[in-house]
From TrEMBL:
<dbReference type="GO" id="GO:0005829">
    <property type="term" value="C:cytosol"/>
</dbReference>
<feature type="binding site">
    <location>
        <position position="143"/>
    </location>
    <ligand>
        <name>substrate</name>
    </ligand>
</feature>
<keyword id="KW-0862">Zinc</keyword>
<feature type="binding site">
    <location>
        <position position="314"/>
    </location>
    <ligand>
        <name>Zn(2+)</name>
    </ligand>
</feature>
<dbReference type="InterPro" id="IPR036511">
    <property type="entry name" value="TGT-like_sf"/>
</dbReference>
<feature type="binding site">
    <location>
        <position position="340"/>
    </location>
    <ligand>
        <name>Zn(2+)</name>
    </ligand>
</feature>
<feature type="active site" description="Proton acceptor">
    <location>
        <position position="89"/>
    </location>
</feature>
<feature type="binding site">
    <location>
        <position position="309"/>
    </location>
    <ligand>
        <name>Zn(2+)</name>
    </ligand>
</feature>
<dbReference type="GO" id="GO:0008479">
    <property type="term" value="F:tRNA-guanosine(34) queuine transglycosylase activity"/>
</dbReference>
<comment type="pathway">
    <text>tRNA modification; tRNA-queuosine biosynthesis.</text>
</comment>
<comment type="similarity">
    <text>Belongs to the queuine tRNA-ribosyltransferase family.</text>
</comment>
<feature type="domain" description="tRNA-guanine(15) transglycosylase-like">
    <location>
        <begin position="10"/>
        <end position="369"/>
    </location>
</feature>
<dbReference type="InterPro" id="IPR050076">
    <property type="entry name" value="ArchSynthase1/Queuine_TRR"/>
</dbReference>
<keyword id="KW-0671">Queuosine biosynthesis</keyword>
<dbReference type="Pfam" id="PF01702">
    <property type="entry name" value="TGT"/>
</dbReference>
<comment type="function">
    <text>Catalyzes the base-exchange of a guanine (G) residue with the queuine precursor 7-aminomethyl-7-deazaguanine (PreQ1) at position 34 (anticodon wobble position) in tRNAs with GU(N) anticodons (tRNA-Asp, -Asn, -His and -Tyr). Catalysis occurs through a double-displacement mechanism. The nucleophile active site attacks the C1' of nucleotide 34 to detach the guanine base from the RNA, forming a covalent enzyme-RNA intermediate. The proton acceptor active site deprotonates the incoming PreQ1, allowing a nucleophilic attack on the C1' of the ribose to form the product.</text>
</comment>
<feature type="binding site">
    <location>
        <position position="194"/>
    </location>
    <ligand>
        <name>substrate</name>
    </ligand>
</feature>
């Protein structure tokens, strides 16, 4: 259940109640693709890094170790020792981004596994069954991820199929949640809005899926090559048609600036691999801007990575030491960098929530967007 606590313009401060605890929104969901954050971060680390929700990848976990294995181990929460909410994606994005050979039919999609070429079939029912075996808090509906740009007529046919698939997802989840041996009988379902960058198709699709009364709604198919302004325009077109009493999720986004702008336009939830991926390559987000640790100027710099940050990395290690770790490809450098970036993102969300509560979000946005988007 979503409760709106305060609104400042379109920015929303809320609480999202789940069977695995409450999520304070707006929130960033930390991406643990294969039931772990890349860079050597454990579930117990995530508590100290102020993570509220972890996101896991249905496709990758279905391939390895297998959803049957995870179910036999008691579900994802027990498997990875994480007892706060988990969102699992549907596998749709990976089917359409990783599979070089695929065939889309009304039933679902047949494609070649990216690891061994083995043929796999996935459709709405299969995705729901896999996610039910995980016992995740939130399951994402199976949708077609449309390329950007895509022809208008193809996009129109695609969103119609995605809506039909969503109805099947809802029916299958209701069936699975009613089973006596289901791991999480209160598993939630989020629908996904698609439509490329065509505002009329986006709005039509949002109106159709909003009528299904789901637990939450996502905007998908963005941050895949379109300009930032096209993404913001799409959010502005869709947002008025998203149910106000449900959480709103912008999938795969993004930079700190993207998040600030997304909240400004009414978004509650975000996820992105960027903070962990960038950190593993020595690019760190700080309250002074983006810091590239490979730069020569940090060679003998004794300052903490970010003098305004209280994360374990900034409390204990210098820029010079961190640069050394990255230069010699030491795994510890990746771990310390990922720790910092995730802490930074989760702290950013705290500051966003505080600004909305105080009614100062527009001033917050105008102050931080130029700072957080610049390279030091």
């Amino acid at each position: 259940m979503y409760t709106l606590l305060k609104q400042d313009g379109h920015a929303r401060r809320g609480t999202f109640e789940t069977v695995h605890g409450a999520v304070q929104t707006p929130a960033f969901m930390n991406v643990g693709t294969s039931a772990a954050i890349k860079g050597g971060i454990s579930s117990t680390d995530l508590v100290e890094l102020k993570c509220q929700v972890e996101l896991c990848n249905t496709y990758h976990l279905h391939v390895r170790p297998g959803d049957d294995v995870i179910r036999a181990m008691g579900g994802l929460h027990k498997f990875m020792n994480w007892h706060r909410p988990i969102l699992t994606d549907s596998g749709g994005f990976q089917v359409f981004s990783l599979a070089k050979l695929r065939k889309i039919k009304e039933e679902g999609v047949t494609f070649a596994c990216h690891l061994d070429g083995k043929r796999i079939f996935m459709g709405p029912e299969e995705s729901m069954r896999i996610q039910s075996n995980f016992g995740s808090t939130i399951a994402m509906a199976f949708d077609e991820c449309i390329e950007n740009p895509a022809p208008y007529d193809y996009t129109e046919r695609s969103i119609a199929r995605t809506t039909r698939w969503l109805v099947r997802c809802k029916e299958e989840m209701a069936r699975l949640n009613a089973q006596p041996d289901t791991l999480n009988p209160r598993q939630m379902l989020f629908g996904i809005n698609q439509g490329s960058t065509y505002a009329d198709l986006r709005v039509r699709h949002m109106q159709e899926i909003a009528a299904l009364g789901l637990d939450g709604y996502a905007i998908g198919g963005l941050a895949v090559g379109e300009t930032a302004q096209e993404m913001y325009d799409t959010i502005e077109a869709v947002e008025p048609h998203m149910p106000a009493d449900r959480p709103r999720y912008l999938m795969g986004v993004g930079t700190p600036v993207n998040i600030i702008e997304g909240v400004y336009r009414g978004i509650d939830l975000f996820d992105c691999v960027m903070p962990s991926r960038n950190a593993r390559h020595g690019t760190l987000f700080t309250w002074d801007g983006i810091r590239i640790l490979h730069n020569e100027k940090y060679k003998t710099d004794e300052s903490p990575l970010d003098e305004h940050c209280g994360c374990p990395t900034c409390r204990n290690f210098s820029r010079g030491y961190l640069r050394h770790l990255f230069r010699v490809n030491e795994m510890l450098g990746m771990r310390l960098g990922v720790q910092h970036n995730l802490y930074f993102y989760n702290t950013l969300m705290e500051k966003i929530r505080e600004a909305i509560e105080q009614g100062t979000y527009d001033a917050f946005r105008r102050h931080w967007v130029p700072i957080l988007g610049r390279r030091i």
